[in-house]
From TrEMBL:
Signal peptide: 1-24
Pfam families: Polysacc_deac_2
Entries under InterPro entries matching the protein: Divergent_DAC, Glyco_hydro/deAcase_b/a-brl
Keywords, comma-separated and alphabetical: Signal
Name of the protein described by the UniProt record: Divergent polysaccharide deacetylase family protein
GO biological process, one term: carbohydrate metabolic process
PANTHER family in alphabetical order: DIVERGENT POLYSACCHARIDE DEACETYLASE SUPERFAMILY, UNCHARACTERIZED YIBQ-RELATED
Gene3D superfamilies named in the record: Glycoside hydrolase/deacetylase
Length: 276
């Protein structure tokens, strides 16, 4: 698919959803693109790092090329996350740095801290697999304890609809996001196009969307065309931390507006009080 083709179907989304947007008229919808599973393959990882714009990269700890790719990402001005392996319901192999529900709290936190140390410049983390662990509140509280201590955010990859990770993060006061779309379950350009359009539609309806893909060659080639087309269609690509910052700014503005409204409602204008 050439750039013109990507642009055309993005513009279709613009027209189809223009009347139903839920964000401020003067704000562009935002899209976060996270590339998971960085670290095992150097060539594919470096190709993914060459994507334009503020793409976010989630790096598997203790893998052959984790440290090199994390450092190169930082040199390119890209955002780095830890892609933390967590126990899954199918007992699939997790690799080094795995977090298991059988661990004691002390050992669990030690493993997670070592994984964060193994990925230079990590400012956040998300779960690799984790369909078992993210359903359990106690180990997810341990994850958030470490996240809060380290000052990093959490992205729930939502590998199960029963995940409690985002809720636990919010309760713990850890900045958190949830994945909206997996981009490349099937590694064809047709499927990638379909999923990317779904993400754009979500962003237009709700103001933002979070997409997760992988450094497969077909994904990288598709995003080389799709990312420039986003700008043409009025969708802003942002890093995960930038989206969290924008959300926090909105929260503070809403709180300030509510406080101002409450103050005005208590003013006695008949006495000539200054209610500004």
């Amino acid at each position: 698919m050439k750039l013109e083709g990507v642009f055309c179907w993005l513009m279709v989304a613009w027209v189809a959803l223009f009347s139903g947007v839920a964000f401020a008229a003067d704000e562009a919808p935002r899209l976060v693109i996270v590339i998971d599973d960085m670290g095992n393959n150097l060539q594919q990882g470096q190709a993914a790092l060459a994507l334009s714009g503020p793409v976010t990269y989630a790096v598997l700890p203790h893998t052959a090329h984790a440290e090199q790719l994390a450092r190169e990402a930082n040199q390119f001005g890209k955002e780095v996350m830890l892609h933390a392996p967590m126990a899954n319901t199918q007992r699939l192999k997790l690799g080094p740095g795995a977090l298991l529900p059988s661990y004691s709290e002390t050992h669990f936190k030690k493993v997670l801290n070592e994984s964060l140390d193994a990925v230079p410049y990590a400012v956040g983390l998300n779960n690799h697999m984790g369909s078992l662990l993210t359903q359990q509140k106690v180990p997810m509280r341990w994850v958030m304890d470490v996240a809060k201590e380290r000052g990093v955010f959490f992205l729930d990859s939502k590998t199960t609809p029963s995940s409690v990770a985002w809720d636990v993060a919010k309760q713990a006061g850890v900045p958190a996001l949830k994945r909206d779309i997996f981009l490349d379950h099937f590694q064809t350009r047709e499927f990638l196009s379909q999923q990317f359009l779904r993400a754009v539609n979500i962003a237009r309806r709700h103001g933002y969307a979070v997409v997760i893909g992988h450094p497969y060659p077909v994904t990288t080639e598709f995003l080389q065309d799709a990312i420039p087309a986003l700008d043409e269609a009025g969708v802003q690509l942002v890093s995960a931390s930038a989206l969290l910052m924008l959300q926090e700014q909105r929260r503070l503005l809403r709180a300030k507006a509510r406080k101002h409204h409450d103050l005005l409602s208590r003013c006695d204008y008949s006495e000539g009080h200054d209610c500004q």
